[in-house]
Amino acid sequence: MGRVKVLVVEDDPSVADGIIDGLGDAAFEVHHSATGAAALSDFATFAPDIVLLDLGLPDMDGTDVCRALRKQSAVPIIVVSARGDEIDRVVSLEMGADDYVVKPFGMRELVARIRAVARRTNSAEAPVGPTERTFGSLTIDTRAQRVSLAGEDIHLTPTEFELLVYLTEDPGAVCRRSDILNDVWDTNWFGTTKTLDAHVAAIRKKLGNSGWIESVRGVGFRFGQPA
Ligand code: CA
């Protein structure tokens, strides 16, 4: 496997230079787009493994770029924002972003996040045991990384997929928030509990029934078939 390709979408040259240097040092292959329009056209030619997306761009809102990318690809997207508010974070995750970092951040943190997202995305390439799980009308193929409901494909982001797979490891069992965060997100960073809620909400919406994932107050979540 070649180097992980990261598309850095950032209009501020000083921020972009720092990120590009840091990711280069960490052996990533980096391409830089300074506008939303450039990002959308560079995405097709560069074919990145991961997109690092600034929300404050001169020509488009970053969330629109996120939405446009998500329409055409399941590429992992990490949103980078100077705006640390909860609304931004939740909106980004609902828009299909996989992770969220707030400026200023350290390069070590950023590299760790990118590696974690890359690992999640690649983990489905190594099948272990049976690769298909069926729960009533829901089928999850961990090898092909596909989910279908009553025969219709359901498009989940890599993180949503990983979370659903985690919850279905032991149907009916309660999964604790801290365990899910450690296992699916690797690190326990500020805001992850909201991140988890946003991803659960996104999966429920895509499955068309919140009964698939039951909230267990104060503890976590439980997978089951809706009544
Ligand atoms: Ca910016």
Describe the structure.
With 227 residues, this protein is an alpha/beta fold. The protein has 8 helices and 12 strands. A hairpin with a 2-residue loop joins strand 8 and strand 9. The mean pLDDT is 86. Calcium ion (CA) is lined by residues 11-12, 54, 56-57. Calcium ion binds at residues 11-12, 54, 56-57.
Task: Give the proportion of residues in helices.
Answer: 40-55%
| Structural class computed from helices and strand pairing | alpha/beta
Bound molecules: calcium ion
Domain count: the total is: 2
Task: Tell me the total number of β-strands.
Answer: 12
CATH class of the largest domain: Alpha Beta
- Ranges with pLDDT <50 over ≥5 residues? none
Rg calculated over all Cα atoms: 18 Å
The largest sheet is: 5 strands, parallel
Strand line-up in the sheet with most strands: 2-1-3-4-5
Beta-strand percentage range:
15-25%
Q: Which properties best describe this structure?
A:
Arc Repressor Mutant, subunit A, 227 residues, 8 helices, 5-stranded parallel β-sheet, alpha/beta, Rossmann fold, 4-stranded antiparallel β-sheet, binds calcium ion, 12 strands, globular
Concise description?
The protein folds into 2 domains: 5-124, 3-Layer(aba) Sandwich (Rossmann fold); 127-223, Winged helix-like DNA-binding domain superfamily/Winged helix DNA-binding domain (Arc Repressor Mutant, subunit A). It has a 5-stranded parallel β-sheet with strand order 2-1-3-4-5, sandwiched between helices. It has a 4-stranded antiparallel β-sheet with strand order 6-7-8-9, with no helix packed on it. It has a 3-stranded antiparallel β-sheet with strand order 10-12-11. The chain has 227 residues and is an alpha/beta fold.
